[in-house]
Amino acid sequence: MSGSTEGLDPDRVKCVVWDLDGTLWDEIAVESATDALPAPRPQMLAAIDALAARGVLSSIASRSAPSVLGRLEDVPDLRARFLAPQVSWQDKSESLRAIAKDLGIAVEALLLVDDSPYERAEVEALLPGVRTLDPAEVPALLAAFEGREETPESRARVHRYRTEETRRAEAERFQGTREEFLRWCGMRLTVGAATPEEIPRALELAARTHRLNSSGLTPDRLRELAGSAGHDLFTAAMTDRFGDYGVIGAALVDGTAPAVRSVPLLALSCRVAGRGAAAAFLFRLMERSRAAGAEEFRVTLRPTDANLEMRILLRQAGLRRTDDTADPAVGAAAGAAGAVLGRSLHGDLPEPPAWLHVSDREDTEA
What we know:
With about 375 residues, the chain is α/β, with parallel strands linked by helices. It has helices at about 40-55, 65-75, 75-80, 90-105, 115-125, 140-145, 150-175, 180-185, 200-210, 220-225, 275-290, 310-315, 360-365, and strands at about 15-20, 55-65, 85-90, 110-115, 130-135, 185-195, 230-240, 245-255, 260-270, 295-300, 320-325, 340-345, 355-360. It is built from 13 helices and 13 strands. The longest helix is centred in the middle third of the chain and has 22 residues, at about 150-175. The protein is elongated.
């Protein structure tokens, strides 16, 4: 739907991709008489910064000479605003695919701002899940994000993705296996009850994660359940030798039935996909449930086109369907009936990956 924010779901937009000529600036960069880039439009820079404060990344997709990207590197304050920029003569749809791959997010999580109706149409035709806007619609785009709370996590997101670029570059240079690289990273996962400061991030994970989200529980329903008797909200945070990932996981645990621990929502950031964090968080929740006296562990699952990775994880953890009815903790808030998967907590439980050190948050404070 080109040139309109009607029906735009801001929770699905993780990165806004900006065209350069005629969008970020007025002129055509390759036609400049000097090596200096055209001056960016102040309103576009202000929009990029406002989005970043709310946790929305920015990138570049420009059909222009690759040398323009080299010139952009000479303007550090401008270059720092963009992740995984693409400047080449390839189709915009190909550039967007490359950006999504580099960032580790779904291509449908991108939104393109481009002054060219042709470029927007090309992207809409080949990437139908991607929204496109004319630059004149940027104020409406910002208005769609006005209700999103600014949190320390959202303000740090661009920095954390830039750290991820460093991790990826180091992984490419590393002489050894993938597992050896992960061990070298020294990843540490800590799990504990959510602090008041972490609750906004937990709500954000519920709303904005799709690949590693078990049920799609809405933030409002999550907040309601987390405040009710017998329910606990847990978070997982991770660090490694490159820096702090921040809070990367959230789980709501229902302990109202003494012998059963049920998880209406398990959600993790796609930034940690493939590193064992999702499995480690799930397994630690199982261990804590058994230590609390529970005999059975259950997770509500609402299958979607996006959460195949979560479904595979639950199956690998030994959870199987136990009930064909909807989990009442999810109900209409999830938009559809969720299957209840469960397993016994007797006997051996799965172990986290050997390269990931896992501890309870209380251990780190001792």
